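Researcher: Structure for this, please.
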Amino acid sequence: MQALSNRMNTPPALPSPQPARISRAALAGRIIDVHNHIGISIKSAANTEYPYAATAEGIAYRQSACGVDASVVFPYTPDLYFDPVALKDGRMVPAAQPLSPAPYAAENALVMAEVFRFCPELSRRLIPFVSIDPGRAIAAQLQALEALEAEYPVYGVKIVPVLCQSPVSALLREGRPLMDYALARRLPCLFHASPDKREGYSYAGDILDIMAAYPALRYCLAHAIGFHRGFLEAASRAANVWVDTGALKIQCELVHAGSPLLAHGSECFDSDYTDHRRVMQDLAAAYPDTIVWGSDTPAYSYIVRRRQGGGVQDFRLKATYEDEVAALRALAPAMQQRVGSSNTLDFLFGL
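Model: Predicted structure, token format:
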């Protein structure tokens, strides 16, 4: 019985020491969703929030049904490092005996195992990034990343400071070794970005400082940088910076509702925010070499309470994957290829 139990707890063996990397040539002309999360939010599940989980298989089937060919994937949350009781209240307090040796260590390993061990039939369409916490347990994070890259291909780094409750500016202080890790491997970096400095964690101005300190890397700023015209213009002037449209429909709803979390007034990119498809058309027309398409699966809906800006923010936003695809399909075919494929390949592999 013990032997059977041991076999049941052992993941299937890999077919080779490390899976082959997907090449740029293999992805040429394919529509790529640049922004997808795999895994579970323990905090959301504990609070009956939505969404709370996504799997590689679920992402692949959803995208296949919508004519999307490939996707960049990364962990959903760093929850396994944190105390579950505090986590339920939205507070990120390291656990006394964490289930992960560092933020995202277990979650990064799970994404890689899901893509290459559990669902190898999907490994030619899923492009895994690793996630990092900007300011906590830096040495332990690096140790876990170095062990992971010995076994699996790593294509980039995803940073969501607000979900870690760890300010992105830490990457120029205690978290600098994490940026050095990315630089040594020339890994592209995808940042959750906010135009609102009061959010406290993901301010786009701080990300610009990081980009200036590490100019040799390629960057993508998520969620259209909250439609902030100044930040969009700054991104468009840089040859190594792209901007994704993740969760476009609900981001547009927030602008239309006058949310202070997004750009407003003269700072806001000019468009009709009652129609996210029109916003996509206007963004692509204004910044044809900068915009890349992404869905933010599964968080294109967002019905949660989140700690930020020194308080708690309620979100009650609902959309579908089809809504995100509709924004891409609202573009002319040549522009669909540009923002859904060639721009994305430039971000992933370089110009």
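Researcher: Any notable elements?
Model: The first strand starts at residue 32 and ends at 40. The two ends are 55 Å apart (CA to CA).
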